[in-house]
Fold these 2 entries.
Entry 1:
Amino acid sequence: MSPRKKQKLRAGFVAIVGRPNVGKSTLLNRVLGEKVAIVTPRPQTTRTRILGVWNGEGAQIAFFDTPGLHKAKGVLNRRMVEVALSTLPEVDAVLFLVEAGTSPEGKVEIGETTRWAAAEVAKRGKPAILGINKMDRAPRATLLPVIDAYKDLHAWAELVPFSALDGENVEQLLKAIVAHLPEADEPLFPKDMLTDQAERTLAAEYVREQVMLLTRDEIPYSCAVEIEEFDESQRSDRAGLVRISAVIFVERETQKGIVIGKGGQMLKKIGTNSRYHMERLLGCKVFLSLTVRVEERWSERPKSLEKLGL
Ligand SMILES: Nc1nc2c(ncn2[C@@H]2O[C@H](COP(=O)(O)OP(=O)(O)O)[C@@H](O)[C@H]2O)c(=O)[nH]1
Ligand SMILES: [Mg+2]
């Protein structure tokens, strides 16, 4: 019998935080290889905390994707920032994301929001890894000055440039995170558990993603989606069908018109695109029906926010 001890595992919770739009959700999806968090070019896309579990050689990272940190106005936005900040005390380490790149004059500008967010992280005293995302967009020569500028912002445990979009350096980023996690006898979650997001929730999020991508002005921010029917009675292992009915809530009659579009064109496009992602997620055909309903000022009502898990 070999006296060799079983190699210890490193496992822990990690909060992905940072300003809106730095690529937190894109990174989580890239790491998991599955769309557990929706992504749009707009700020305030992620509204709740999302768990995503990554398993590596002798390591497990339980990531929390969070809403962006910013000086929030309005009930919904303030609630979202609270969700992000309240995650910090619960984790073993923090992954703080910023974007690579310099101004056209070659200067590295660290905004007030980033400074404030870094100070909020520092207060909690957790090991913090700085991830410099979107390196695909930044010329190599600008990376060093960016790293230099961010070095002084906080006593980072590590600084890692990467690209969530094309995956460059993501392995290195994961390694850097694992090095700062506690040793554990057991993984935190079973190996086959990817996320805490129910299929039903993800289906609603895929619809909201399309509304955010396809509409303009205030609509992306004043919409919510609820699944009214999720019928799996005809679903089987590899085939079959899931019937989903979803309601898109908007705040005004005029917004309803825009979401439906001329001759229903917009709603049709929202349906086609979100159904594509649902079918990939569920691995079977999806029959999707969408309706649009007006619920005035839903984003200011605690009851509506509760219903949406906020
Ligand atoms: N070029 C580039 N764009 C990225 C990268 N990561 C994210 N993005 C884009 O940045 C926008 C915001 O991404 P998202 O993940 O929603 O950011 P979050 O608000 O921090 O969760 C989206 O349009 C993404 O496609 C990256 O590595 N490179
Ligand atoms: Mg996000």
Note: The first helix runs from residue 24 to 32.
Entry 2:
Amino acid sequence: MTSATPTASTGETVRLTVAQAVVRFLANQWSERDGERQKLFAGCFGIFGHGNVAGLGQALLQNELADGQEHLPYVLARNEQAMVHTSVAYARQKDRLQTWACTASVGPGSTNMLTGAALATINRIPVLLLPSGTFATRVSAPVLQELEQPYAADVTVNDAFRPLSRFFDRVSRPEQLPSALLGAMRVLTDPVETGAVTISLPQDVQAEAHDWPVELFAPRVWRVARPVPEAVDIADAAAVIRSARRPLVVAGGGVHYSGAEEALRALAEQTGIPVCESQAGKGSLPHGHPQEMGAVGSTGTTAANALAAEADVVVGVGTRWSDFTTASRTAFQDKGVRFVNVNVARFDAGKHAGLSVVADAREALRALSGALDGYAVEDAYRERQAALWSEWDASVEAAYHPAPDVTDRLGDGLLTQGQVLGAVNELTDPRDVVLCAAGSMPGDLHKLWRVRDRKAYHVEYGYSCMGYEVPASIGIRLADESRDVFAMVGDGGYLMMPTELVTAVQERVKVIVVLVQNHGFHSIGSLSESLGSQRFGTSYRFRGESSGRLDGDVLPVDLAANARSLGAHVIEVHSLDELHQAIKEAKAAPADGGPVVIHVETDPLVHAPDSASWWDVPVSEVSDLDTTQAAYAEYTDHKATQRPLISPTSTPTNAATSPEPTS
Ligand SMILES: Cc1ncc(C[n+]2csc(CCOP(=O)(O)OP(=O)(O)O)c2C)c(N)n1
Ligand SMILES: [Mg+2]
């Protein structure tokens, strides 16, 4: 939904290059929700090459030197994938109301952004990508880095963005630019459609001049919609919930993006319905709230998973029902379980054959509260929630503060991952943000992290992309400088993308990176073992001289020195006391002092408490290995508990049995 400031067409024009027009247009875009306006673009990240240095590069320079009302700040990044991650993290922290543009050169610069594009689209986070294209005129083709396809002369590497983008256009002539830009803004600010938006800009077109109607650059306000639910859907949803004895709410990222936390809390308190959360929805209720049951699914709490197994009505709010949330469709075991799905996207609202309430989460929850007036769960159900929660909370306490029988078995200077997460949780401020994306920590954080503020938990688990953490920490901090950001990153994830520490140094952005060194893949190592693959290829070791396999000594890798060499202030810790001191020192570091890295070594063989859950990862059906055969037998047992979740949810106005003919 848009509301453009009315500007009559005057016939007046202004002569600018395509790139200058792009920059000027972007600087004049605003978003608005609940009466609050903000610039839609905080700025533009980029890396220049021959594809954009003379086009967008010139336009951004001209803009920086003018430094007026229409300013679009430029920030030089180190890796194109990373700058998309930074933008996505920024936009997520801003509840999708503000984002960045990203410019990259032709060829590898642009295709480096593909992983970021997929991550943005899967997580439904707005970001504007401006890959540069090879010559539209083709007069000197093939230009350096051009893909030549004998079967199709118009294909470029930028066509690879099409399946990853929610909107794609290629501006081969200046006249196409206005519709490309307007289409892009529409999608970026639409809560249903949003994701990666790509406008491919051929390098010659970027530098070409055109006479633009001045109204192209008039300030525009894009109102981010809050669609209201239909009364009949709310009535049906309320009727289904009223018939429930063991209802359960599953909160997803939509709760946060809509700012629906207060409405959810009101509904939970009014009805006594317990609430559990997906990764994106974690923190929908604060830790310690009586209805807060924490994470659900494969990396869930035993409390949430016990309630999920028994639930007769499951109300999904703003969730896309990923396999981690449903424990690969084994989480909900009641034979007659029915689903009510509140979602702004009809696509998600229809999942699990649920009763769809297509609406903004906050609006729908408020309407549901009204429609559920007088309904509450039985006391016995509340008591069960409390008992399950205190049992789980005790296991979190034990993971944060392990008993001597666990710590005595640890190697010299090693901590457990639970100790590290516990120390960070207990020594940070409630508003500080914890961040992670891949490895064993997202699962452990989902289970164990005690969230005390709605924007304090940021785990990217739609794409779970190793390397997101360092660049994303910059985005979060730029979005909100009143919070410290703690990026929890494994050694594997760090090695994928340490580069943006340099960008944090350049911009004097204070981010705190907790680098958890366990010499390989704790996560995939454990998964491999549980599937019979014996941790093959999951630890960072020398190739053994006699075995010829990767089972030699631990590699002499010094990631602390690596981070120091990139300009970060690095603190190495070897004990719990030193970790406590390091966290305090990092928090006390100057707000504009750049990145701080805490390097800590952990034991990869101590696990977080079990979720009493499952995740579907297919095991080889035939094998020479006993371990694989045993894992396959266990796999088939779990497969038998998987459910299709396709039963229709019948309601008073939508009786699924024997429908009456209407004509
Ligand atoms: C870009 C990318 N490649 C591969 C994977 C698959 N993967 C998931 S976790 C993981 C290992 C992560 O290692 P590390 O960061 O050290 O964390 P740890 O498992 O040790 O906690 C891998 C390879 C991924 N998620 N992302
Ligand atoms: Mg590791």
Note: The longest strand covers residues 127-133.
